[in-house]
Specification:
The complex is a heterodimer of chains A (about 110) and B (about 110).
Chain A (H helix, E strand, L loop, with lengths): L4 E3 L2 E4 L5 E6 L6 E8 L3 E9 L2 E5 L6 E5 L5 E5 L8 E8 L8 E2 L3 E5 L1
Parallel strand pairs in A: 2-11
Antiparallel strand pairs in A: 1-3, 3-8, 4-5, 4-9, 5-6, 7-8, 9-10, 9-11
Chain B lengths: L3 E4 L2 E5 L4 E7 L3 E9 L5 E7 L2 E5 L2 E6 L4 E6 L8 E9 L6 E2 L3 E6 L1
Classes of the chains: A mainly beta (about 110), B mainly beta (about 110).
């Protein structure tokens, strides 16, 4: 079966711009969670969606937002990009998101210049 | 404050050696996960544990819930095991992960 698909794989943006990243979960999975990975901070949780509802949110500014569609695909948006937003953004999907198996996507590498 | 602590940060081993990576956590959890990340970024979930021990091939993961500690063992290590191994926990309180900082493993032929 198809894995978790993240698009695009690479992205270069300018400070002040906004960006939208996409994550298509494994078929049947209703939970999608997002993570930011940087060399300095490691992996950090951004937010988690289940059945189009945000259930949990990490400690990130309001410039980071997300949504989930009825087909479970999810998008995250970062507005007013800063240099420090340069990172690998990963999403993971699971059936329920409550401790069952997770499958990660390959990530989107965002570079802000 | 880090909810998850891993050790060691870096590990170099000769091919064939037995390897242990340790993880301690400070929150109540519903599950603990061991993840593998190769250069290029993709993450693979190796194990999800809530008690006891699991084994996949040469990899063994154990967890002691009372001591809030888990170990990942690799037997007969191979250069293809070279990767970053990350411990993560799913807390009782929410649907998310807390991550350790990772252990970078290099296995030399």
């Amino acid at each position: 079966k198809a894995g978790v698909t993240q698009t695009p794989r690479y992205l270069i943006k300018t400070r002040g711009q906004q960006v939208t990243l996409s994550c298509s979960p494994i078929s049947g999975h209703r939970s999608v969670s997002w993570y930011q990975q940087t060399p300095g901070q490691g992996l950090q949780f951004l937010f988690e969606y289940f059945s189009e509802t945000q259930r949990n949110k990490g400690n990130f500014p309001g410039r980071f937002s997300g949504r989930q569609f009825s087909n479970s695909r999810s998008e995250m948006n970062v507005s007013t990009l800063e240099l420090g937003d340069s990172a690998l953004y990963l999403c993971a999907s699971s059936s329920t998101g409550t401790g069952d198996g997770y499958t990660f996507g390959s990530g989107t590498r965002l570079t802000v210049v | 404050k880090n909810e998850v602590e891993q050790s060691p940060q870096n590990l170099t081993a000769q091919e064939g050696e037995f390897i242990t990576i340790n993880c301690s956590y400070s929150v109540g959890i519903s599950a603990l996960h061991w993840l593998q990340q190769h250069p290029g970024g993709g993450i693979v979930s190796l194990f999800m544990l809530s008690s006891g021990k699991k084994k996949h091939g040469r990899l063994i993961a154990t967890i002691n819930i009372q001591e809030k500690h888990s170990s990942l063992h690799i037997t007969a290590s191979h250069p293809r095991d070279s990767a970053v191994y990350i411990c993560a926990v799913t807390p009782n309180t929410g649907n998310q992960f807390y991550f350790g900082t990772g252990t970078s493993l290099t296995v030399i032929p």
